[in-house]
């Protein structure tokens, strides 16, 4: 038997249910990644990170006797073409929630059915599958606290074994990875499962102090795993299991990630349409003020530091994200979608569920139960950057 595993944003070999199942059930497995022109160019930082992830995944597969086949074009057409060329009986893929991913999955299903190829969809994107826990009488949780309770009570799947050897059919053209794209930010993290695992090991030595220090801007005491979770270099389940403290503050943040994924599944317009109507719809239009916010020259030190960190690193501390987003929407009264778009261009961890969910939360149009709250950026700085170290690092005067 032969199976194709179509990789998307699950760029790892460990705890990869689709890959593990294909290796268990088929003699020959074709790991495939299709460079999709529709997705390229949205964020040079993410394009570069993706390239590093693919190079690393290719190495990991080669060490196991296989390769990562690279194709370019429409992922559905390329998958079917490859499956038919080698006479594959099955295609395996990890389930995903964005509108784009679900459309791709529906099209893939239709084409597989037409060619009598079995399509199997596997978990792994989140810890608890989006839609697996629902409130009585609803299709998703709108408020985090009850979701968190249900999530802790849900049965988590078991991690799957990493395939030791993977056999490719012979005589295939592996395809080449194009030259690495340039990216935009000078100080970005490097992509790939290998790097992700090094960072996770390092993080496990510090995670005990997360609760205490996660908001202290100068300490920079969060995991920096978000981009690796975004591209699936780590399965979120394996991160939660490695930390082994389900009730702790860190795993609670992983639950926020799951939370927004189940919101985005139920409300596919999360990145463009107010989730909660009637709080605020009349945003100001002011391109010059917007540009100053984007450049980090508003004159508010903490806001400017956050915005400059974003451009320098393709990442921003969560406390700073909250402050800059609150400042854009509640002080400058500019549309949250402008902020979302800017973040989406620069953030390596930028994804539909977390970016949109958090932007709507701060704008008051989302899942916050206190939509009219507003931060004072000077007080935030006194509290979370009392010595001004973070500000001096990114926006020195
Ligand atoms: P840690 O504090 O170490 O947390 C561990 C993991 O939990 C993160 O890697 C992330 O996967 C998850 N997580 C933490 N906080 C949140 C949260 N509030 N919502 C959802 N998941 C969370 N996160 C993204 O991954 N992608 C985005 O596009 C994104 N956009 C954001 C936009 C705004 C306006 C705000 C306020 C927050 C946004 N976040 C986003 C959430 C959060 O800021 C980042 O996940 C976090 O800063 C990443 O750093 P870390 O890995 O060190 O996080």
Counted beta strands: 5
Average pLDDT: 97
CATH superfamily of the largest domain: HUPs
Put simply, the count of helices is 17
Q: What series of H and E elements makes up the topology?
A: EHEHEHEHEHHHHHHHHHHHHH
**What fold name goes in the CATH topology slot of the largest domain?**
Rossmann fold
The kinds of small molecule bound in this structure are: flavin-adenine dinucleotide
Outline the low-pLDDT stretches: none
CATH architecture of the largest domain: 3-Layer(aba) Sandwich
How many discrete domains? Answer: 3
Q: Main sheet: which strands, in order across?
A: 3-2-1-4-5
Find the structural class using helix and strand composition. Answer: alpha/beta
Description:
With 397 residues, the protein is an alpha/beta fold. It has three domains: 2-125, 3-Layer(aba) Sandwich (Rossmann fold); 195-265, no CATH class; 287-394, DNA Cyclobutane Dipyrimidine Photolyase, subunit A, domain 3. It has 17 helices and five strands. Strands 3-2-1-4-5 form a five-stranded parallel beta sheet, sandwiched between helices. Strand 4, helix 4 and strand 5 (118-122) form a beta-alpha-beta unit. Helix 10 crosses helix 15 and helix 13 packs across helix 15 (352-363). The longest helix is centred in the first third of the chain and has 20 residues, at 44-63. The mean pLDDT is 97. The structure holds flavin-adenine dinucleotide. Flavin-adenine dinucleotide (FAD) is lined by residues 214, 222-226, 229-230, 253-254, 256-257, 260, 318, 321-322, 325, 343, 347, 349-351, 354-355, 358-359, 362. Flavin-adenine dinucleotide binds next to helix 8, helix 10, helix 13 and helix 15.
């Amino acid at each position: 038997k032969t199976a194709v595993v179509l990789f998307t944003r699950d760029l790892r070999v460990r705890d990869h249910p689709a890959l593990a199942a294909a290796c268990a059930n088929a003699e020959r497995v074709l790991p495939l990644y299709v460079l999709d022109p529709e997705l390229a160019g949205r964020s040079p930082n993410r394009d570069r990170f993706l390239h590093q992830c693919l190079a690393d995944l290719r190495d990991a597969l080669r060490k196991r006797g296989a390769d990562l086949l690279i194709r370019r074009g429409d992922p559905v057409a390329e998958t079917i073409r490859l499956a038919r060329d080698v006479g594959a009986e099955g295609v395996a893929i990890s389930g995903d929630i964005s509108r784009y991913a679900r459309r791709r999955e529906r099209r893939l299903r239709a084409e597989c059915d037409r060619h009598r190829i079995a399509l199997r969809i596997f978990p792994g994107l989140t810890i608890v599958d989006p839609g697996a826990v629902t409130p009585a009488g609803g299709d998703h949780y709108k408020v985090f606290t009850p979701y968190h309770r249900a999530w802790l009570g849900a049965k988590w799947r078991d991690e799957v074994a990493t395939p030791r050897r993977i056999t490719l059919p012979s005589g295939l053209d592996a395809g080449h990875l194009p030259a690495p794209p340039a990216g935009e930010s000078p100080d970005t993290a490097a992509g790939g499962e290998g790097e992700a695992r090094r960072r996770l090991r390092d993080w496990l030595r510090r995670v005990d102090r997360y609760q205490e220090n996660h908001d202290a801007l100068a300490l920079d005491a969060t995991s920096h795993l978000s981009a690796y979770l975004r591209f699936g270099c780590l399965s979120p389940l394996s991160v939660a299991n490695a930390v082994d403290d389900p009730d702790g503050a860190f795993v609670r943040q992983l639950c926020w990630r799951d939370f927004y994924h189940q919101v985005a599944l139920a409300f596919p317009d999360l990145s463009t349409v107010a989730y909660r109507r009637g709080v605020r719809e009349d945003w100001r239009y002011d391109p010059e003020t917007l540009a100053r916010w984007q450049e980090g020259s508003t004159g508010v030190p903490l806001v400017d530091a956050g915005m400059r960190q974003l451009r320098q690193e393709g990442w921003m501390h969560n406390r700073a994200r909250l402050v800059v987003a609150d400042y854009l929407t509640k002080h400058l009264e500019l549309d949250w979608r402008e902020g979302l778009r800017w973040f989406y261009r620069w953030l390596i961890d930028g994804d539909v569920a977390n970016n949109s969910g958090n932007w709507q939360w701060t704008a008051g149009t989302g899942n916050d139960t206190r939509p009219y709250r507003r931060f004072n950026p000077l007080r935030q700085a006194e509290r979370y950057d009392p010595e001004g170290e973070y500000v001096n690092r990114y926006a020195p005067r």
